[in-house]
Amino acid sequence: MKKLMAGFGRIYRGETTFNFIGKRVIGFTVSLVIVLAGALSLLVQGLELGIDFRGGVAWELPAGSITDQDAREVLEANNIETSNAKIQFLTSSESRVMRVQVGDQPEDIRLATQKSFAELAKVEVQEVSVASVSSSWGRSITEKAIRALLVFFVIVSLYISWRLEWKMAITALVAMVHDVLLSVGVYSLFGFEVTPATVVAFLTILGYSLYDTVVVFDRVQENSQKFATSRQSFANVANVSTNEVLARSLNTTLSSALPVVSLLVVGSMVLGAKNLEEFAVALLVGMLAGTYSSIFVAVPLLDLLKRNEVKYKPFRGQLATGAAMVELMGLSAITKQTRGTVTSGDESDQSVQDTVSKVAQRATSVLTHPPRPRKKRR
């Protein structure tokens, strides 16, 4: 337990020397497996589209002690196919509501079924709500979402190319596409319903993913200038930069995810607001995917694009780890951390700590040199 807490402490003090570039195969493999599993699920079972996308009719009524079978008997009595009917029970601390969704139906059948449900629940007809949505409305929403997505990608790529560089723009786009595919795959694998709220959440997580990636890239660019004359490989620059912003990325994710978890647990599970669940699940999955992709996908992919540039190609075989990375990170990131240790999977804690001490001693000797003797007056 102490080692675990000490590990978290080192992360938040910026004392880590994780070899993200050297372990990129693991990160790429994990992403590929999840994305392929989601793609296979999409081909086999597709997405569970809500009524807003596929069109149809939905009734909501006080459930009381009504069962799933009771609702199906009402549908059959009104000549409605029950094989594709979706029946949900929305439970809160104050009430229990049943929602029944089926394909599009003529108006007379909708009204007759509404009356039958009222009789089943022993309530007035007005207490049974009925909503009818055309599938064309859902297609319109989908087309608008796709257009918004394409415009977003174009604007983002132009901005990053101008602010940073075009190779960073390419990797940022790949990371965002990765996050969308992963999130959609999770929805397909677990059968979560896709609603307009889900689409809004997908567009929201793109902005979140982009923010996290740009933060890392900005530090990469800053360190590229810092190490411009030190003859370092881009892998070393990327590793140092990622370790320096690791704590910031984790803090951003945790501070953003906690309200979403509260929304999911309190709003959906306690209060029974299923609409909040559709939004919160997409946000939570997207946030986790965005943090993962910015560290384990975007930066390693950027290294593959930049390692053969003229200024990095002669040194592309270099990969500093452990104590060597501590040397690269420099005293600017270590002087405030001398109370702790820096760990690495490649070298022992004592070895890395010795390196930290040597760096500190060299800096001290430079900063505390004796004053120069004064020249004698003639």
How does this model look, in words?
The protein is α+β, with helices and mostly antiparallel strands. The protein has helices at 2-12, 24-44, 51-54, 68-77, 107-121, 135-163, 166-190, 196-226, 234-270, 274-306, 323-329, 349-367, and strands spanning 48-49, 56-62, 86-91, 96-102, 129-133, 193-194. Strand 3 and strand 4 form a beta hairpin. It folds into 2 domains: 16-48 and 137-306, Multidrug efflux transporter AcrB transmembrane fold; 56-133, ACT domain (Alpha-Beta Plaits, 2-Layer Sandwich). The chain has a 4-stranded antiparallel beta sheet. A two-stranded parallel sheet has the order 1-6. The relative contact order is 0.14. It is 64% helix and 8% strand. It starts with a helix and ends in an 11-residue tail after the last helix.
> Which percent range fits the helix content?
55-70%
Sequence of secondary-structure elements: HHEHEHEEHEHHEHHHHH
Just give the CATH class of the largest domain.
Mainly Alpha
Return the CATH topology of the largest domain. Answer: Multidrug efflux transporter AcrB transmembrane fold
Number of domains: 2
Keywords:
12 helices, alpha+beta, Multidrug efflux transporter AcrB transmembrane fold, 378 residues, 2 domains, four-stranded antiparallel beta sheet, Alpha-Beta Plaits, single chain, 6 strands, two-stranded parallel sheet
